[in-house]
Amino acid sequence: MKQITKYQNQKVLVLGLAKSGFSAAKLLHDLGALVTVNDGKPFEENPMAQDLLSLGVKVITGSHPIELLDEDFSLMVKNPGIPYDQPLVKKALEKGIPVITEVELAYEIAECPIIGITGTNGKTTTTTMIAEILNRGMKEGQARLSGNIGFPASSVAQEAQPEDKLVMELSSFQLMGIQTFHPKVAVITNLFSAHLDYHGSREEYVKAKWHIQQNMTSEDTLILNWKQAELRSLAEQTKAQVLPFSSEEKVAGAYLLDGNLCFKEEVLMPASELGVPGVHNIENALAAICVAKTQGIANEAIVAALTSFTGVPHRTQFVAKINERLFYNDSKATNILATEMALGGFDPSKLILLAGGLDRGNSFDDLIPSLEGVKAVILFGETKEKLADAAQKAGITEIHFTENAETAVPVAYEISQPGDAILLSPANASWDQYKNFEIRGDRYMAAVRALS
């Protein structure tokens, strides 16, 4: 990593631990900063805080005292999930203290180029596809996953060598905290309304996503989903070279034509040979192809990676084939839009959908068009009655209720026929029954494996 000196003897407040805060605090300490960490979890329940204290980092836990800012801090590094109206953050901004997220630190120390991926849906799948393609086709170095995908960027950047690539998933929350962050290649998979409770409006959410390109130049490449008029319009406002992809029309980049994935005038492979189903995954693959082409990756490596790609855990992930039934885990589908996209990848007449979860007060009428023709639904959780109403309106006659995602599995198997697909795509958050969507997906997959 670059041995930068700008933080030596600078007083820095790291607000919020978790993986990224812990990584940022350790890095800043190693760079000679005078670090104070403030985390809401009590010290006795906080092993990360305990580790940092043992290194000589000042640690304040259990609350967020506003008096902390009486000290002369030159910087705050904020956990991305902490909103800007949090009292300490608000006060820091009022005092003129810069507030960043740890991806900014990662950029400052990285010796290798960054490929940044953001968007509303498909970030993790696209990021993983890109890394797998690059690792098949790069002649030297390796593609290193980092960022919102679960590997703190500031940790991965410390290990990366100059010949490597940092393939970094970036959330809107992270992008709000950048200043000089500068990817050589950036991708925006799509833009839909999301996290409006955090951002306040769609306009502010889009603005945060658009930060990804704010420091890019004409020597950099910005890859955009050309299907979206909003992104076509935004493309006029960047200094970067724009490389489009589209699942609907031929463009000067990657596109779907006559059932084939193409780049410019080249046909790479039939879309049907992708290792994961759905139009949304075709779009993810097209974005990944664009990145691969900017890095000079051969078509053979691109095709080999995309045909063998079986998905990211909990995102339309293939689980097993049992007596000619195909099981898929899309537990990450915590909203209607994500389930709509998953449903688009299957023949509805051979599909059994498992859905349900936390009741946030919304109806499921928007899901009705995507449910039409689905063979059967098995519903659980707080929203099962609402989903049953939507299923009935969609003309589905086979509707079953069960306790949870695990108990839905034997029911689905019992009513299925050879050739059917059984898909967990809940369209709801998991918190009525599970701590997170990962646990929900893991328990579903364990139930599937128990069948065999």
UniProtKB/TrEMBL annotation:
Catalytic EC class: ligase
Positions annotated to bind ATP: 119-125
Protein name as catalogued: UDP-N-acetylmuramoylalanine--D-glutamate ligase
Gene this chain is encoded by: murD
Membrane spanning residue stretches: none
Biological source species: Enterococcus asini ATCC 700915
Function: Cell wall formation. Catalyzes the addition of glutamate to the nucleotide precursor UDP-N-acetylmuramoyl-L-alanine (UMA).
Pathway: Cell wall biogenesis; peptidoglycan biosynthesis
Recorded family membership: Belongs to the MurCDEF family.
